[in-house]
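Format notes (please read before filing issues)

Several people have asked whether sequences and structure tokens are stored in separate files. They are not. Every record keeps both together, in the order shown below: the sequence lines, then the token lines. Line labels are part of the format and must not be stripped during preprocessing.
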Amino acid sequence: MKVCVFGGNEDVGGYILKQLNAAGYEAVTMAETENSAEELKMLGAAEVIISEAGDFSRAFSGADAIIYIAGASINAAESQDALVDHDAVSAALEEAEREKVGRFVYLSAVRMDEPEETKKTGGKHKPEEWMEESGLNYTVIRTSKAVSKPGKGTIEAAETVDGVDAEVPYEDIAAAIVESLDNKNTFRKTFEMTAGETGIKVALDDL
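Then the structure lines:
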């Protein structure tokens, strides 16, 4: 399966590239420079497309799925206006539909413990609405605060998770995203996740 990764240079993205490679997926991502491209290939990207102008159409060619994390900084302050580039997500959704990619896994800019009134800060909620209204086979994942700690391979996942002030390692977020690609229990669903005691596959199987 060819998977196009938006945000391979993000903290979670690096783990996603490694895990896709280990699982036998063909990961394609984008970079602005040759140096960045080499670093992404070392992480596990099978192909890196240089695109200074932000043209991602080549990356979609022949893709079976898209993982989108670019710009979705789940550690950003709630008051920050530009948490996600709505136009970029919208363009990716439209291109995915044109190319009949079908599968779209999105790491939301909305945190799972975020108050309802702040979900609209900077329009963070808009990409989720776009996906729900699209014909794509989407999965939207909201997490607790992401941290740079060793992953444990265990999480808690559900439509709604009670995890105020909870944390989850980047590595486990990446593993849940990669597992979601082919896990039918995540298809056309939005779910929340944080650190927990259940194996990632089992947790997603139980959604």
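For reference, the curators noted about this record: The first helix runs from residue 11 to 22. The first strand starts at residue 2 and ends at 6.
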